[in-house]
Write a structure and sequence with these properties.
Blueprint lengths: L1 E11 L6 E10 L4 E5 L4 H12 L6 E5 L6 H9 L1 H5 L2 E4 H9 L14 H7 L10 H7 L4 H6 L1 H6 L7 H31 L6 H20 L3 E2 L2 H9 L1 H16 L4 E6 L6 E7 L1 H10 L19 H10 L5 H15 L2 H4 L5 E2 L27 H4 L8 E8 L2 H10 L2 H8 L2 H8 L13 H16 L3 H11 L5 H18 L1 H17 L1 E3 L7 E3 L6 H5 L1 H20 L5 E3 L2 E7 H23 L6 E7 L10 H10 L13 E3 L10
Parallel strand pairs: 1-4, 4-5
Antiparallel strand pairs: 1-2, 2-3, 6-9, 7-8, 10-14, 10-15, 11-12, 13-14, 15-16
Helix pairs in contact: 2-10, 4-9, 6-9, 10-26, 12-15, 18-19, 18-24, 18-26, 19-20, 20-21, 21-22, 22-23, 23-24, 26-27
Length: about 650
């Protein structure tokens, strides 16, 4: 097979809808071919296009770095999407991440995602001869250089470089493709060094997902937004941040944010609100989380370092909801002006980040425009234009079904086929027979956290907090007793699941890794120090991610440009296409679940939002109303969620 390493240099428009191409380089180590084209010039672009057309795609393998957000969109712009879908690709970024995210050898490297970090981690600094920082500045990646030449190179679309500048850029691009070949060799050496077989088929499966992620990113419209409201929010960010902090104080019942004033004594001006450690401690104590929350080394204050705070707020977001959503909103308002990412038509695209997590899940970033990872009230800015729809199909309780199938546990499968949360509550003695979501919603809601928390690896100490919310009259000691009773009963009833957890742990420790038994063959490396809880949920997460990839690839191959989101998809389309496309995607999701797991039990749920009934999240309603009122908007929408269709592909007649 003809292996071509490829790299583009470009300037992407702020709304991520167009790539101003600068140059491209191709490297073929077998034939010792190294060629670059300054494709900002029409003659060079045509020459490069002729070169691509001369290739036999059935015998050509493209290897790039982060191809879904770079090489794939550039190639689509030049050759069209049908040509790109015929390509065979490997993404060295993904191959590198599979090692660097979990292998003990790379634990000491904090920066693990850039090409520069790969060059450093793999000991290739002496092989890379270009000044990356200086050249990127020259290509207009940095703000200072961009500002200096905006009118010349962006507004007039005349990207003029001197002969010397272009020579430097082409050399840089050539260095990138040459170093990719060395990175590929280094990764291959790692697999031989640790005696781990990584097949070409697995690398191609991972590359295919990256390529098709780039296709859906490029060809899809993205998230349809309420243009006026998004612009208003981000033009008044400072005002909104203060309002959010005040609302957090009100909802939490504690003054977690205190005002800070500056100026003369009688003319002080409110500058900002700052976080109050003392009141935060009272807040934790009120919800009895003080026994779980770690303290600083001196032991005087609860830990508030960013990573730990994010982890704990995520683990207990149902209990600490006001602070959780307030912090997320503040971070999101501070990070990126989403109005700048919005196209004139009102769409926001987010570049894909495939295989970004250790479990192999993708991880699209809110700061890059992934709206479904924003705070709930900001998600409610999603509003299709008149005549358009936003469709959101979701795997139903995906991880529970995966756990049931992998462990061959009939009791867990029975729970999934009913209501997985209430059924587990009934089986463990915390809800009566015949309980339903309507009659025992007060039990089902906390039990969702309990059931998922159990699969995620939470044990007694952590579950005790959730059991406190199950009955407010229970003391901490009583809640702990009930958590122990639940946990012991769960282990008895779902004993096949727990045997699977133990067997998987022992096998992974013995092998030194866990591997997905699917096309991607993703590896998660472990060591003798790896805890059981770290691996307990790994098979469920990894197989669920694989299932999503299977379904994603089929959808995109069929021209449905879905946006993957954890255990769901989203896509925008004409309103008349919404139901037939939703049915097709739902069917594909169930079919691909069957293909991976070998059983036909998966269900889906689908919501279809329109201009008249835009995106809804009940957790964000109060903040949405509060902010919109402060910004002077009339509240002109209803606050009821749209109908949810279970297995929409099996429903014959549907009206929106």
């Amino acid at each position: 097979m003809n292996t071509l390493y490829i790299d583009f240099e470009y300037i992407q428009t702020r709304d991520q809808t167009y790539y101003n191409l600068v140059c491209v380089a191709i490297y073929n180590p077998q034939d010792k071919l190294l060629k670059s084209w300054p494709i900002i010039y029409p003659d060079a672009l045509n020459d490069f296009k002729s070169y691509l057309l001369s290739l036999d795609l059935s015998e050509t393998l493209f290897i790039g770095w982060a191809i879904s957000g770079a090489e794939v969109p550039c190639l689509i712009q030049i050759m069209g999407v049908d040509w790109v879908k015929k390509t065979t690709c490997i993404d060295d970024w993904v191959e590198y991440k599979m090692w660097v995210l979990t292998h003990p050898y790379f634990f000491n490297y904090s920066k693990k995602h850039s090409l520069s970090s790969a060059i450093e981690c793999l000991g290739l600094e002496d092989e890379y001869l270009s000044d990356k920082g200086a050249t990127l500045a020259l290509i207009l990646y940095d703000d200072q250089h961009r500002a200096a030449k905006t009118k010349l190179r962006i507004e007039t679309n005349s990207f003029l470089y001197t002969e010397k500048e272009m020579k430097e850029i082409l050399f840089y691009c050539e260095q990138d493709v040459k170093i990719l070949a060395l990175i590929t060799k280094k990764i291959a050496l790692l697999s031989r060094l640790y005696n781990i077989e990584i097949t070409l088929a697995q690398r191609l499966a991972r590359g295919k997902f990256c390529m098709l992620s780039g296709v859906s990113y490029t060809m899809g419209n993205g998230f349809p937004m309420d243009i006026e409201k998004v612009k208003a929010i981000f033009s008044q960010r400072d005002k909104i941040k203060k309002l959010i902090q005040l609302e957090c104080n009100k909802k939490s019942g504690y003054h977690l944010y205190l005002p800070e004033y500056k100026g003369p004594k009688h003319r002080k001006i409110l500058v900002k609100y700052t976080f109050c450690h003392e009141n935060f401690a009272k807040y934790l104590t009120h919800y009895r989380l003080d026994m779980l929350w770690e303290k600083t080394e001196k032991g005087k204050q609860f830990r508030l370092d960013e990573d730990y705070l994010n982890e704990m707020l995520s683990n207990y977001k149902d209990i600490l909801e006001p602070l959780y959503h307030a912090r997320n909103t503040l971070k999101q308002l501070n990070s990126t002006d989403l109005s700048e990412l919005m196209s004139p038509e009102g769409y926001i695209k987010c570049p894909p980040f495939p295989f970004q997590q250790r479990t192999s899940r993708s991880s699209p970033m809110p700061s890059k425009g992934f709206i479904l990872n924003l705070a709930p009230w900001l998600r409610m800015m999603i509003q299709p234009a008149p005549g358009r729809a936003f469709v959101h199909p979701d795997f139903k309780a995906q991880e529970i079904l995966v756990a049931a199938i992998l462990s061959r546990d009939p009791q867990m499968l029975d729970s999934y086929l009913n209501d997985p949360y209430l059924s587990t509550a009934i089986k463990t003695g915390f809800a009566p027979e015949g309980a339903t979501k309507k009659t025992h919603g007060h039990i089902r809601t906390p039990f969702k956290g309990i059931v998922l928390g159990t699969i995620y690896g939470r044990w007694i100490k952590s579950l005790t907090i959730i059991f406190m919310s199950l009955n407010n009259e229970w003391s901490e000691e009583k809640a702990r007793e009930e958590a122990i009773r639940y946990f012991e009963t769960h282990k008895q009833i779902f004993h096949k699941y727990w045997k699977f957890v133990d067997d998987n742990y022992q096998e992974s420790i013995q092998n030194g890794y866990f591997q997905i038994k699917g096309e991607s063959g993703w590896l998660y490396f472990v060591s003798p120090d790896t805890k059981t809880t770290q691996l307990q949920n790994l098979p469920c997460q990894s197989f669920a991610a694989e299932m999503l990839r299977y379904a994603h690839d089929v959808c995109v191959e069929q021209g449905i440009n879905v946006i993957p989101h954890h255990d769901a998809f989203a896509f925008e389309c004409a309103i008349e296409d919404a139901i037939p496309l939703a049915k097709r995607v739902s069917q594909i999701m169930c079919e691909q679940s069957h293909r991976l797991l070998g059983y036909d039990y998966m269900s889906t749920t689908t919501k279809i939002y329109t201009h008249e009934n835009p995106y809804f999240d009940k957790r964000g309603v109060d903040t949405y109303k509060f902010v919109m009122k402060e910004l002077g908007f009339e509240i002109d929408r209803n606050f009821e969620d749209v109908k949810e269709f279970e297995n929409i592909h099996l429903i014959s007649e549907i009206t929106l």
